[in-house]
Amino acid sequence: MSGYDSSPSMSSSLSRRFSLFEMKSATDNFADELVIGRGGFGKVYKGSITDGENITVAVKRLNPRSRQGAREFRTEIEMLSRFRYRYLVSLIGYCDQSEEMILVYEYMPRGTLADHLHKLGKNYSAPLPWLRRLRICIDAARGLDYLHIGTSIQPGKAIHRDVKSSNILLDDNWDAKISDFGLSRLGPEDEAYSHVSTEVKGTFGYLDPEYSLTRRLTRKSDVYAFGVVMLEALCGRPAVDLSADEEQWGLAVWGQYCIREGTVDEIIDPSLREEIRKDCLMEFVQIADECLHHLPRKRPTMAEVVVRLEFAMAMQEGNDSSIVFKPVKSALALQEQEDSSDIVKPAKMTRKVQPYFSGTTSGTIKSFRICLIGTVKCINLSVPTISIKVASLLPNFEM
Ligand SMILES: Nc1ncnc2c1ncn2[C@@H]1O[C@H](COP(=O)(O)OP(=O)(O)OP(=O)(O)O)[C@@H](O)[C@H]1O
Asked: Is the predicted ipTM greater than 0.85, yes or no?
């Protein structure tokens, strides 16, 4: 029996149900040469199915022994059958036969935003130009806005809960789409700040501190994570970098500190310095800073983020030739400078990770690195699902 109960309400007429035989022939019996990626819940293969014509697909084979995986498998099908939009990756179908749980997606040939930002030199030779990064951010923001609010034709009302650069996929035209809905939640129905109480889930480096503390999940937790993605795009740094100096381990805190100190130039991706217009950079940095505000209600909605990113893009595309890089402070930073209690200063961290909050909760850390600072040793762990005492990798705040 499969770990997934495929009641008729679960499967959508829009998603095709494949047999295991079809999945094996699509992936040459799950051949290793066809593996294009690995996530915490299994391998992803490049495959081919026929539906009148040959279609290239991405086949995600989940670990059948993972109970958590079974839940996420069901959620992914429910969400992607309900929400269909050009900025969300499309689910073509699924297979739930003989203990197997397999998802079939449209194939995204240019991989993930994370690949292009953090795997330069491996699969990708040239850094992404600034305009492309901006467009990718706008596409991803549109996808999230749709998920949060929907359109007049199709209401949204969901929270993604695992927004990160490795869940932003890129197609042939560099159009970006949000993927990985296994952790997402439906609701709440009404205004942006209403919440649902849930176990704390997500990925370190992107977790909204307020959600981590209170378990009150709102759309603003996605906005926070999106702010981290924006900083990644600007800086070319991962959300958590344990090989950096201790005060720079968490990009969210480090980035905000630099924004408020007017030292963004220290962390901006060097390949972008000649490209970014000052006014565009100011706007971009200000949006990111607001997305990362410690109070969820002070963060913008994704709809506002879309509009403002489009504005930033218009600035970048303007004809004015004053493309200069100068350190900037966001308006928010300037406004809050008056209130010193709001200024976040990353303190020098002690060697051991400081708990930013505590409490036993279930975290889906699908893969992370433990780096022994000062040595070159890195251990890659892949843990399907674990229960943890949550300790954020963010440094302590000096108040
Ligand atoms: N639709 C797709 N088209 C092309 N490649 C894909 C697609 N979906 C996933 N991949 C590749 O497979 C990799 C693993 O994806 P997956 O969603 O399983 O894990 P992840 O999001 O990277 O990590 P995790 O889900 O564990 O947090 C991705 O990084 C990407 O390279």
From this structure: yes
